[in-house]
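Quick one:
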Amino acid sequence: MEGIKMGAFLTIAVVLIGVYAVIKAVRKRKLPSNNYTPFDDITNGKVDKDN
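Output:
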């Protein structure tokens, strides 16, 4: 019984997070930028190459 309650809670939490993201995107009338790549930081010198 405890596993069912926790599973339902997690499912509801994931759905609410998704709904929040959709509402936020609709309010701004724009989707988040998809153009970022880690290569951008490397070419701009923002990544420490010693690590």
